[in-house]
Specification:
Elements (H helix, E strand, L loop, with lengths): L7 E2 L1 H8 L25 H4 L34 H10 L7 H16 L5 E3 L2 E3 L4 E6 L6 H15 L1 H7 E2 L5 H6 L8 E6 L2 H9 L5 H10 L3 E3 L6 E3 L3 E9 H8 L12 E6 L15 H14 L9 H14 L5 H6 L3 H15 L7 H21 L7 H10 L4 E2 H7 L6 H11 L3 E5 L6 E5 L2
Helix pairs in contact: 1-18, 3-4, 3-11, 4-5, 5-6, 12-15, 14-15, 16-18
Length: 449
């Protein structure tokens, strides 16, 4: 009589046993650059990138990403809205930069340029148009610097005085950030860190206040640094952040820098790669008309106060709010846990750039599309990284083949408690398969193929 085949548990089954059940997966659209007079040699390898999800369908308001995907996502054209989106479309055929890197940095710059006056109210807290974004990609091949150079040209053209006075780099301490505002009534500050790895290194130092201060700034709180003699306090600081980092640097520093302390989930994570090959070099297209639009929008937005959703946007928000409020499990969930606020900040900024007095459905839809890209991008960037060191140790052991629960306990000298093991397995759940009926009737765990 043949032995009965043991039941197999997939990732969702494992989540039901060891953690919350929440796996979201929906399609990503291909982004194709529009035809333009700028001739470019398209990088065939880049153009043939498959989407980050297996299925193709029309864009919807469902969140999407899958765990451990090997291929990076692509920014859908539907995420590019208004004059900022049109500038990206116009620049893209003339540069090797990634469209998502262009768009994210342009929005962050414009959100800072507008200033702290426009806001929307959510659960008693006022949110503004200041964004934090981190561009992550391959060493020297992601064209991160190229993307900033293109955005820099646009921002300088919109307001050269703001750019020369309020765009800074070289974060070394929280005190250094607050000192920028001493004796200055302008509370805007765009931190552009081309070497974001150095900022993470700064955060490793005992007693360093950079992470705390940046979290305060994103939240719109008074930023403060306590000194021996007196405190430095700044009310109404409007700080935005653009960081560049390579994948190897990020992975190396994640082991020693606790990014899940609340800074990571205040950032829009963008995976950048070279969009095409331009053997003759890139050039800057004519965006004069669009820059005039942006200048007018920035001037109009700078004096606005509270901005609310219109009826259509309110109806759409009611449909997506529950889904946005439930992040996935594990480290990725921590990084994506501010989805509601991030989407509304993006939608607010898009409405302001449209010179709209309200946040309309079109602004919310575009904000959702861009956030979905950021979700998928974060899933790709942080694939293979773990918040729990025990999860990382188990994952490493699974690389040699399936292991039993007894073996897992032996990995830690039988000093790890059952709740600690369960928490580690909950983080691994999307990437493992659990089978019953192993040696002695126990459970066997293997990597999901």
């Amino acid at each position: 009589m043949s032995a009965k085949k043991p039941p197999v548990k997939d990732a969702k089954d494992a989540l039901r046993e060891f953690g919350p059940e929440h796996l979201r997966n929906a399609p990503v659209e291909d982004w194709q650059p529009p035809a333009d007079s700028c001739h470019s040699l398209v990088n065939e390898k880049h153009e043939k990138h498959e989407n980050s999800c297996d299925t193709m369908a029309e864009s919807s308001c469902d969140s999407f990403f899958s765990y451990g995907e090997s291929k990076p996502p692509k920014l859908p054209d539907s995420a590019l809205h208004g004059p900022a989106g049109e500038i990206v479309r116009r620049i893209l055929p003339c540069t090797e930069a990634d469209p998502a890197a262009l768009y994210a940095q342009l929005l962050a710059g414009l959100g800072n340029l507008i200033g702290p006056s426009p806001n929307f109210l959510a659960d008693g807290s006022r949110h503004h148009a200041n964004l934090f974004t981190v561009i992550c990609g391959r060493t020297s091949k992601a064209r991160k610097g190229t993307s900033w150079a293109q955005v820099k040209n646009v921002l300088e053209a919109v307001d050269s005085i703001w750019f020369s006075m309020r765009v800074k780099s070289g974060i070394v301490s929280g005190e250094g950030i607050t000192q920028v505002f001493e004796g200055d009534s302008d509370k805007r500050l765009l931190l552009q860190e081309g070497e974001f790895a150095q900022v993470l290194q700064v955060m490793r130092r005992e007693g360093n206040t950079v992470s705390v201060l940046l979290r305060q700034a994103w939240d719109g709180q008074k930023i403060a640094v306590m000194r021996r003699k007196d405190a430095i306090e700044v009310e109404g600081a409007h700080i935005s952040l653009i960081g560049h980092i390579t994948e190897p640097e990020l992975r190396r520093l994640l082991a020693s820098v606790e990014m899940s302390n609340g800074l990571a989930n205040r950032c829009l994570w963008i995976y950048a790669d070279r969009s095409k090959l331009l053997p003759e070099g890139s050039r800057t297209p004519d965006t004069t008309d669009l820059i005039e639009q942006l200048s007018a929008a920035v001037n109009a937005a700078s004096t606005r106060g509270e901005v609310r959703r219109d009826d259509e946007a309110r109806e759409l928000w009611g449909k997506v709010y529950a889904e946005l409020s439930e992040p996935p499990p594990g480290r990725l969930g921590e990084i994506l846990s501010r989805a509601e606020a991030q989407v509304m900040r993006i939608a607010l900024l898009l409405a302001l750039l449209d010179e709209s007095a309200v946040i309309g459905k079109r602004h919310l839809e575009a904000g959702l599309e861009f956030w979905r890209y950021c979700e998928a991008s974060a899933a790709h960037i942080f694939a293979g990284t773990f918040a729990d060191p025990k999860a990382a140790r188990i994952w490493e052991a699974l690389g040699s083949g399936p292991i039993t629960m007894t073996k897992i306990h032996e990995l830690f000298g039988r000093n790890a408690s059952k709740p600690e093991i369960d928490a580690a397995l909950a983080e691994l759940a999307p990437r493992i398969v659990m089978e019953t009926g192993g040696p002695g009737g126990g459970k066997t765990i293997r990597r999901k193929t």
